[in-house]
Amino acid sequence: MASSIPPKRPRRAPRVLLVALVGLGALYAVLALTARPAAPHPWFASRPGDRRILVISHQGGEGVWPSNTMLGFERSAALGAEVLDADMHLTRDGALVLMHDQTVDRTTNGTGVIRDMTLAELQRLDAAHRFSLDEGKTFPFRGQGLVAPTLESLFQRWPDTRFGIEIKQTPVEIAGPFCALIRKYGMQDKVLVSSFRQENMNAFRAACPEVATSATQDEVTLFFALNTIGLTYIYTPNYQSLQVPETFSGLTVLTPQFMAGARNRGLAVQPWTINEPGQMARIIGLGVDGINTDYPQRLVDLLQRSPQNP
């Protein structure tokens, strides 16, 4: 009886795999040829008196002064911090104000969500009410008239200072008035904008493309992944800095490999929030561009002794 077994067909898997690999190689080649480092921005240009590593006073030095207050910014500027770091929200009546949390509960003598308050209501609260250096035994700045300042008041007070402004959990509509205020005071080269929320950052970049920005959490994750597998050469960043923690979810972010990848893409590296002298010294040794800290005086003192800082 004749066999009914059909003839063998040629195997296509190796051919398909070969075509896929060739296509992938061609894609990588195109990306490598077209990818560019981050566009340079004047915010990062060295200025007279700058240290090699910029001192970024996180929330105006919240380890020693009440967070996001004029007192903290004044004292940070006086000790020579090159960058004043602040967190921005939008009030119900459209004012851009500085406070870290979405609510006023943790730092003031009031309660409520900033977005639901007017500027007048917010500034009736004591922004230093809960600030303590001894775990609540004393409150050295309570009742001294410190209020949540407006962003405009910072621009008016320090028109020649660099700022790092983080857009907090606020509606994307904040991008328009934020950009308008930056342009009003001619601060396009003096503001570096950050946000964890991609939607807020996308809206701000569309409204204010001339202002420097830092990578969002999603963008840092992508950069870290590409850098880990050696593919940063195919990547064109649409931001100028990487503001990252030293470690995240058990992974060490700040490594020589990370620094090399950032340099290859023309990106500044400005880790946060670095508070202990030993940690500061370790990170200085990596050659970062700035350090965001709650204790700016500690960093100033350390940099004065560091051979890597002129």
Proper CATH architecture: Alpha-Beta Barrel
How would you classify the helix and strand content by structural class? alpha/beta
Order of helices and strands: HEHEEHHEHEHEHEEEHEHEH
CATH topology-level fold name: TIM Barrel
Main β sheet profile = 7 strands, mixed
Helix content percent band:
25-40%
Q: How many β-strands, per DSSP?
A: 11
Tally of structural domains: 1
Q: What's the CATH H-level homologous superfamily?
A: Phosphatidylinositol (PI) phosphodiesterase
| Overall 3D form | globular
**Average pLDDT value?**
92
Poorly predicted sequence stretches spanning 5 or more consecutive residues? none
What's the CATH class label?
Answer: Alpha Beta
Distance between the termini: 94 Å
Tell me what portion of residues adopts beta-strand conformation.
5-15%
Oligomer description? single chain
Rounded to an integer in angstroms, the radius of gyration calculated over CA atoms is 24 Å
* Count of runs of 4 or more consecutive helical residues: 10
